[in-house]
Amino acid sequence: MVINSLRRLVVVDDEHKVIGIVTQTDIIKNLSIDSFVSFKKAEQIMNRKIFAVGENDTLAKAISLMSDNRISCVLVLKGNKPAGIIAERDITRAIAEDAILNNIENIMGSPVVTANKDINLYEAVKLMDEKSTRSLTIVDYNGEAIGIITKSDIIKNLRADYIAILKNMLKEKSKALVESELKYRTLVEQALEGIMIVRDGLIQFVNPTLLKILNYYEKEMVGKDILRFFYPESRELFSENLKKIIACNSIESPLELRMVSKNEEGIYMDILLTHIRFEDKPAALVTLRDITERKKTEAELQRLIITDDLTGLFNQRYFYDVITKEIERAKRHNRAFVHAVS
Question: Is the Cβ–Cβ distance between 94 and 109 less than 8 Å?
Fold first, then answer.
């Protein structure tokens, strides 16, 4: 569901006959709620840094905020209270309707869906589904915005708990049980994210999800040097962080790096590294999420910011960005700045 942005799946039997439908709500209801979302409040995981614009600001400002901060929406405030929201679909609609020069007030989605900071994550997901939205604006008792929570935030929270389960499983089980459970546990085999175990720089285990993303067979990855599956420009950063995590040092996580599939396609991955012991030796549990589509969206937003929609030529913002960089480069090299005009 996460990978394909779906809210429901049709369930079939071994003969491919339809036997039912499962939704996000069904899954959440049947999770071990006390271990996952029920007792956690939105305030605990919400993004407290609010990226917002005013009602009279331009859409270009909203697009710039979204691109610069890699976010999918910005809040529209009237005073400190939420008046609406600008999401990617609002931008797409404005472009289609040739309304990109209009003020935010005429483009924003309204009313914005708000929730009190004390709402738990389970109820937050239910509210999102009821209102057909992927985000909630969290407000205090005065109705003023104090943060934003999205379904992605909740998934990341589940992901952290999920990794903790894997770590505990690896810690508590004997070697034979670990190998058995890692290969056959539904938790790993049916995981929505790619999972690897890396020890001494070699892949010890890889789950079916990652094999499908990269289009490899298990025998083509297990036992191989992990770095061969990364683009050259990503290898050094991954290697540095892998060494740190094996030594139990802290690292900046998650990492955004590019891997290469069997058909030589570039796949952007969101990567988390966690220290574990595998077969009684230090190793790294690596979870990977395909973010290629998100990177394409970010690139398109960036293109919209620096080009003129009508002509396709670079705009004034791009000119000032480039000229600033060139001036700084001239200062660094202590040379005169020369600009030729043709």
Answer: no
- Between CA 28 and CA 22 the distance in angstroms is 11
List the one residue out of 337, 193, 164, 192 whose CA is nearest residue 270: 193
Residue 199 carries which side chain, given as an amino acid letter? R
User: Is residue 56 situated within a structural domain?
Assistant: yes
Phi, psi of 131 (to 5 degrees): -95, 5
DSSP symbol at 46: S
Domain of 4, in residue numbers: 1-29
The total of other beta-carbon atoms located within 10 Å of residue 118's CB is: 11
Q: Interior CA angle at 199 toward 197 and 204, to 5°? A: 45
Q: What is the distance between the alpha carbons of residues 210 and 198, in angstroms, rounded to a whole number?
A: 14
pTM: 0.44
Question: Does residue 341 sit within a domain?
Answer: no
pLDDT tens for 131-159 read 887 778 888 888 888 888 877 777 666 66
Angle at 65 between CA 62 and CA 70, to 5 degrees: 125
Distance set, CA 47 to CA 124, 296, 312 (Å): 14, 23, 35
Same domain, 103 and 180: no
Spell 178-189 as b/e; 16+ CB within 10 A means b.
beeebeeeeebe
